[in-house]
């Protein structure tokens, strides 16, 4: 297994007040077999990228036979559209290297947690926008995700928004038009990929209705999806295991079933391509 870091962009192309350069860690399985792939976007409210939602997730997908990548995308003070350009660039890098890395180029999923779920869903609804595909280093169509995996995602900028994520991404004085553009339940369309979603009912940081709103929009557009709501558990559970819990969390073995269900779902989606 290769574990190396790829710099996505030159430092000077970023917000002058930030020295952050987005990177992508790779977890590529040995051998010559071509495999499906998962690009992982950790959460962190667009303020940081959580380590608890990074390598442990990649290792689970590796164990299931998938290549995996972890994207450490731009966060505050960088603003939209930079994170979306980062994930688009990452998708292009993966597809451009699909032969070298033994990747099935039509079987690439993006998996996001919390604000990383918002970024993942943003790619799913905005991947073909002109301002994305006109950016340097992005080739139109190569950034298309074949499936979305949304884990307790931030979705809406409305009444049930996780306001801190939108303040970090758009600024506190964002226009109504920009808030609507990034309220993703309003942007689902016929080109949005099949989607797996899960949330906990007790999530008090990002209410479960965020997932319900996105699932409802998928339903209206006849996009296949699978949705799981777990009755108990706080926000940010990651794998919901001892390995990924924070100090103030308990273990939630029932919630921990999400990864098995997700891998089964992803296999079905990719097998039907």
Describe this structure in words.
This protein has 273 residues and is an alpha/beta fold. It is built from 8 helices and 8 strands; from the N terminus they run E-E-E-H-E-H-E-H-H-E-H-H-E-H-E-H. It has helices at residues 55-63, 82-96, 115-126, 130-133, 163-170, 176-181, 209-220, 258-271, and strands at 5-7, 23-27, 35-41, 67-72, 103-113, 147-151, 195-200, 225-230. It has an 8-stranded mixed sheet, with helices on both faces. Helix 2 crosses helix 3 (115-126). The radius of gyration is 17 Å and the shape is globular.
Notable characteristics:
single chain, eight-stranded mixed β-sheet, globular
Summarize the topology.
Blueprint: E1 5-7, E2 23-27, E3 35-41, H1 55-63, E4 67-72, H2 82-96, E5 103-113, H3 115-126, H4 130-133, E6 147-151, H5 163-170, H6 176-181, E7 195-200, H7 209-220, E8 225-230, H8 258-271
Helix pairs in contact: 2-3
Concise account of the structure shown:
The chain has 273 residues and is of the alpha/beta class.
Strands side by side in the biggest sheet: 1-2-4-3-5-6-7-8
The average pLDDT score comes to 94
Residue runs with pLDDT of under 50 for 5 or more positions? 11-17
In terms of DSSP E residues, the strand content is 15-25%
Helix content: 25-40%
Main beta-sheet annotation: 8 strands, mixed
- Count of helical stretches: 8
Q: Kindly name the structural category.
A: alpha/beta
H/E element order: EEEHEHEHHEHHEHEH
From the alpha-carbon coordinates, what is the Rg to the nearest angstrom? 17 Å
Shape: globular
Q: N- to C-terminal separation?
A: 26 Å
Number of strands: 8
């Amino acid at each position: 297994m290769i574990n190396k870091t790829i710099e996505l962009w030159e430092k000077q192309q970023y917000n002058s007040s930030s020295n952050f350069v987005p990177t992508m860690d790779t977890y590529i399985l040995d051998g010559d077999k071509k495999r499906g792939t998962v690009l992982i976007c950790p959460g962190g409210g667009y303020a940081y990228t959580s380590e608890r939602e990074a390598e442990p997730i990649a290792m689970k997908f590796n164990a299931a036979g998938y290549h995996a990548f972890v994207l450490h995308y731009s966060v505050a003070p960088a603003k939209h559209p930079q994170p979306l350009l980062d994930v688009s660039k990452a998708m292009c890098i993966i597809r451009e290297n699909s032969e070298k890395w033994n990747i099935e180029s039509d079987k690439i999923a993006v998996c996001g947690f919390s604000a990383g779920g918002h970024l993942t869903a943003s790619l799913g609804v905005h991947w073909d926008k002109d301002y994305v595909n006109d950016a340097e280093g992005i080739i139109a169509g190569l950034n298309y995700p074949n499936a979305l995996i949304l884990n307790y995602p931030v979705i809406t900028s409305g009444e049930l928004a996780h306001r801190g994520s939108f303040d970090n991404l758009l600024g506190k004085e964002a226009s109504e038009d920009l808030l609507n553009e990034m309220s993703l339940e309003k942007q689902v369309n016929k080109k949005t990929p099949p989607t797996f979603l899960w949330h906990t009912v007790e999530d008090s940081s990002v209410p479960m209705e965020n997932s319900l709103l996105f699932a409802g929009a998928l339903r209206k557009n006849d996009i296949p999806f699978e949705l799981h709501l777990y009755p108990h558990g706080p926000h940010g559970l990651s794998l919901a295991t001892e390995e990924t819990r924070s100090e103030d969390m308990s273990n939630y073995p029932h919630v921990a079933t999400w990864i098995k269900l997700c891998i089964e779902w992803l296999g079905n989606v990719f097998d039907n391509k």
